[in-house]
Amino acid sequence: GENVEQHPSTLSVQEGDSAVIKCTYSDSASNYFPWYKQELGKGPQLIIDIRSNVGEKKDQRIAVTLNKTAKHFSLHITETQPEDSAVYFCAASLGYGQNFVFGPGTRLSVLP
Amino acid sequence: GAVVSQHPSRVICKSGTSVKIECRSLDFQATTMFWYRQFPKQSLMLMATSNEGSKATYEQGVEKDKFLINHASLTLSTLTVTSAHPEDSSFYICSVGGSSYNEQFFGPGTRLTVL
User: Fold this and answer.
1) Which end of chain B is more exposed for a tag (fewer CB within 10 A), N or C?
2) Each residue's pLDDT tens digit, A6-40
3) CA of A89, closest CA in chain B: separation in Å?
4) How far is CA A48 from CA A45, A71, B14, B24, in A?
């Protein structure tokens, strides 16, 4: 089955700096890769996603890149703010209606 | 995206009792809902896939007789933890599929504490 790895497990950056979180997946058939932000005691919130037919997607300060050949994808957050502090999870899925396999998560701390 | 609610948000129960958690899709008719469990400082682990009008599909290692799932309508799925024990204490989160492709939108979660 699918296996998703995520690095780093913790990341501290200064406010205004960029943060990058990387994930790798094992199943080449996976075709949908979302990123979720989870604040303490809350459910995950979808922040950006990418499909296998796209190499990069950007939404304001957040971007995701996908390398299908290498089977890895990355989350990029620019101009980080303290409110970006949270746990971020990547996931991989085989398609519509299929379950997600989540990475272990990255705890991001943005220091003021 | 879809708006998902869960009730209750927190529950504390005694060992041996049963607890029901509701997951509602407020603005989207969800034929499929997913139930996840999350232990402290860990990732989300899929427990089961809940299909409207049919039996749920459970992941390997999840006891279907202990975690009863009922998806009786397109907007409501329930998870009942039967004969709960302290090791069942966890954060339970449901999700529903989006209206296009395969996004999933998560509920706010239910914190279960079994004494």
Assistant:
1) C
2) 999 999 999 999 999 999 999 999 999 999 999 99
3) 8
4) 9, 18, 40, 23
